[in-house]
Design brief:
The protein has 357 residues and is of the alpha+beta class. It has 3 domains: 99 residues, no CATH class; 70 residues, Signal transduction histidine kinase, dimerisation/phosphotransfer (DHp) domain (Helix Hairpins, Orthogonal Bundle), CATH 1.10.287.130; 146 residues, 2-Layer Sandwich (Heat Shock Protein 90). The two termini are 65 Å apart.
């Protein structure tokens, strides 16, 4: 295989020489002979046809030898400055095709090759890095989905088997049926969030901008959790400015507030407090959702917007780590900003800033 490749390379070099340097040699020879003829006439020197023939042949041979030398030099130059970077790029592309996204191509010397190769190499390295991140996310996503689905399915299977036991009391039957229902509800909630997140991440979303009262929307979302704060004895504090109108997608924003409030009530112990505030400037509306829950460390806070990440595993049964990933994606689509401040043991505050349109 290598002999055929070298044979093709030699034939290609000969073809380049014949198609480029030989015509150049012929043209140079003709030009030189015209120059000699004109010079002889101007100096009144008589040149015989024999002299002209000998000079033409010698000139042609010399030019051919010089052009051959430059052909060899050009071939070596191309081998070092063109063929070598191309081989590196091709080898890296073949490894990426096979699924190896850890490959990185070293940049070539600016003095030994065209700078354009470095631009191509930089793009390929960046593409490999992005593909590596995507592959890692895909692998983690599959592992996390499998893990999250395994728990409720195991619960459904076990309690479903126990429900078939003869002589089961009514109290136990209701208890097992409730466990099956709760596990099914958790599984359904997880799949719904996965579909929502997939739609937000993989499709071009065009928010339906409409003007609405943001304060009214926050109050409506908060009232959805009235049964939670009454059952747990959680104190509600609000500081919602009146008449704050924004021009945004109301449905997407409702998803943001619902997830933030759900987390706030989930992590706030009985007797704690949840605070919702809304302030506005001429261009932006700022919403804060605070709780007096367990809080989190800076290390946990750096990952809370990642899919399936749960900083407090003791409350894993109350969620699946997709809510804040949905929130982050929605805020990005609406070209807003979201941040979190938290103190372990004291609580967390999520701040969402969106344009008023």
């Amino acid at each position: 295989m290598s002999e055929k490749r070298y044979g093709r390379a030699i034939l290609r070099a000969i073809g380049h020489y014949i198609t480029f340097f030989v015509p150049v040699a012929f043209v140079i020879t003709c030009c030189l002979m015209l120059f000699v003829t004109a010079l002889s006439r101007s100096l009144a020197i008589e040149l015989t046809s024999e002299n002209i023939s000998v000079a033409a042949k010698m000139t042609l041979v010399n030019v051919l030898l010089i052009s051959l030398l430059f052909s060899v030099i050009d071939a070596l130059r191309r081998k070092w400055t063109v063929d070598r970077p191309v081989r590196q790029i091709t080898a890296a592309a073949e490894r990426m095709i096979q699924g190896d996204f850890s490959v990185r191509i070293p940049t070539v010397s600016k003095f030994a090759s065209d700078e354009k190769f470095n631009e191509i190499i930089e793009c390929i390295n960046q593409m490999a890095q992005e593909l590596s991140g995507v592959e890692t996310l895909r692998t983690d996503f599959i592992a996390n989905v499998s893990h999250e689905m395994k728990t409720p399915l195991t619960v459904i299977q076990n309690y479903g088997t126990m429900l078939q036991a003869p002589g089961l009391s009514e109290e136990k039957r209701l208890e097992y049926a409730k466990a099956v229902t709760d596990a099914s509800r958790r599984l359904t909630h997880m799949m719904t969030n996965i579909l929502k997140l997939n739609r937000l991440e993989n499709q071009q979303i065009y928010p339906k901008a409409e003007a609405f009262d943001l304060g009214e929307q926050l109050c409506e979302c908060l009232l959805q959790y009235e049964h939670v704060w009454e059952r747990e004895g959680i104190e509600i504090e609000t500081d919602i400015a009146e008449g704050v109108t924004v021009c945004a997608d109301a449905e997407l924003l409702s998803l943001v507030w619902s997830n933030l409030l759900s987390n706030a009530f989930k992590f706030t112990p009985a007797g704690g407090a949840v605070r919702v505030s809304l302030q506005a400037t001429d261009k932006h509306a700022v919403v804060q959702v605070s709780d007096t829950g367990c809080g989190m460390t800076p290390q946990v806070g750096a990952h809370i917007f990642e899919k399936f990440y749960q900083g407090d595993t003791s409350r894993a049964t109350h969620g699946n780590g997709l809510g804040l990933a949905l929130v982050k994606r929605v805020v990005d689509i609406l070209q807003g900003e979201i941040g979190v401040e938290s103190v372990p043991g004291e609580g967390s505050t999520f701040t969402v800033t969106i344009g008023r349109g």
